[in-house]
Design brief:
Number of strands: 15
Number of domains: 3
Radius of gyration: 32 Å
Shape: elongated
Largest sheet: 5 strands, mixed, barrel
Helix content: 40-55%
CATH architecture of the largest domain: Up-down Bundle
Structural class: alpha+beta
């Protein structure tokens, strides 16, 4: 009965080991190229690094500043996610700054437009429109203001907008059927927004114009057509998805504008503090040197351990290979980003895995010198090593956790790989390594050192 319980425990241990290996392999498939399997950080892949300050931060209370930063991060995260930048990082930097890392982006100006655009959309009744940039529309009255389009042409509009971007449910960039190679923005109103639009149209006549503005710049000023009036007469359903913004947009301009409108406007003005374009050449050099360093250290350990520890060294080789599989599989599974400091964390993991095995192997040798049988020496060696390994690795794991929570950029990248590496090295040494020695039968082939004395 006892042997049955032991056999069942061994099978469960084997099932866990095999499951871990399979999960890691599945997440790493197809293995190459590595940058398609694991998210590479800005320092490895290249891209854009932006740091923004908050306008008026010195005049805000700590609570208001925190609320604004949280809202800015939420909106910017939505923007970059919708733009297809799944590996982008948007996070607070200090008390009053926001850090944005956009791996793979090579156009600094495009990144600045995507991130920094406040995207306040408004619809204004047009009173008069200029015919050129030098047109004089007079001095605006108390309820009027002058806005200009991207070519500098002025528009005298009513100061209060008849509609804002809050009335929108969605916005999509679409090919303009009337202009080859150009795009427009198709707007979809909420039900309440459609009702507001109908109310605004009721006071307008055909050929009256509405200025559609983004951040007080006139994007377009279409005239009210009979078809729009007819759509409004059919109720909210008639206008809820039939309005477009035309403005001779390129594909990228239309796409960024649509994303900004969907994500909403920023609650505060962002002040550019740092803009840095990290070239892909630096990333390739970092990857090559990092891989060379990791592979060199890995091979040296693989050669040294069997020479010094013989059979035990082969167990250490297996444990090290399994640890590396767990580290890279964990990065892929959780969508973590591998950075250059993260590669340093992998190197440290190699050392920690070797250290754990050395501690265990030396305890086994001590048990053998005390005259115990190979099986008893293995059991005693693992039991005596457990407390030392637990103390050291749990402390390291807690430190890595703290760095992940409070750290940013390179520090966080290092902590992520270190944390996964600690878990992997403990599993490989205490579970997989012990299984090989106790269950597979390798323990019977252990050399028996001569007793001291």
């Amino acid at each position: 009965m006892k042997r049955g319980r032991i056999a069942k425990k061994e099978w469960m241990r084997l099932a866990v080991i095999v499951s871990v290996i399979i999960i890691a392999i599945v997440n790493l498939y197809p293995f190459h190229p590595l940058e398609d399997v694991i998210n590479f950080g800005l320092d490895l892949r290249g891209g854009v690094r932006l740091v923004y300050g908050i306008e008026g931060a010195d005049e805000m209370s700590a609570e208001q500043l925190q609320r604004d930063i949280d809202q800015v991060i939420t909106i910017l995260t939505t923007r970059v996610d919708q733009f297809g930048l799944a590996e982008a990082v948007v996070k607070p930097m200090g008390a009053d700054r926001v850090l944005v890392n956009l791996p793979g982006v090579i156009d600094l100006k495009e990144a600045e437009r995507l991130v920094g655009q406040t995207a306040i959309l408004q619809f204004h009744n047009v009173i008069r429109a200029g015919t050129g940039a030098d047109a004089d529309l007079g001095i605006p009255g108390f309820r009027e203001r002058i806005l200009r389009d991207r070519k500098g042409i002025p528009y005298l509009v009513e100061r209060e907008p008849i509609l804002t971007g809050a009335a929108l449910d969605s916005a999509e960039a679409r090919i303009d059927p009337e202009a080859v190679g150009r795009f427009h923005i198709a707007l979809e109103f909420t039900w309440e927004g459609a009702e507001q639009f109908i109310t605004a149209l009721a006071g307008l006549n055909p050929n009256d114009r509405i200025a559609i503005t983004l951040d007080d710049v006139v994007i377009s000023a279409p005239g009210i057509t009979a078809s729009i009036k007819e759509a409004a007469a059919r109720g909210p359903r008639g206008v809820i998805d039939s309005t477009t913004i035309t403005g001779d947009f390129s594909r990228d301009e239309a796409r960024i504008l649509a994303i900004s409108l969907r994500a909403g406007s920023l609650p505060v003005e962002l002040i550019p503090m740092e803009q840095e374009l990290i070239g892909p050449t630096l990333g390739r050099d970092s990857i090559r040197m990092g891989i060379i360093t990791v592979v060199t250290g890995f091979i040296l350990v693989l050669l040294y351990m069997p020479i010094y520890y013989r059979l035990l060294g082969l167990v250490a080789v297996f444990a090290l290979i399994l640890t590396m599989l767990i580290v890279f599989g964990g990065l892929a599974l959780f969508g973590a980003t591998l950075t250059l400091p993260g590669i340093a964390g992998i190197l440290l993991t190699i050392g920690m895995t070797v250290d754990a095995n050395v501690i265990i192997f030396e305890r086994i040798r001590e048990e053998q010198r005390a005259g115990k049988s190979p099986r008893a020496a293995v059991k005693g060696g693992f039991d005596r090593s457990l407390s030392a390994l637990a103390d050291a690795n749990i402390t390291t794991l807690l430190t890595a956790g703290i760095l992940i929570v409070v750290g940013t950029g390179p520090v966080q990248g290092f902590a992520i790989t270190l944390g996964i590496g600690v878990i992997g090295s403990l599993f490989s040494a205490l579970v997989a390594g012990r299984f090989l020695l106790e269950t597979i039968g390798l323990v019977t082939a252990l050399p028996a050192p001569a007793l001291e004395g």
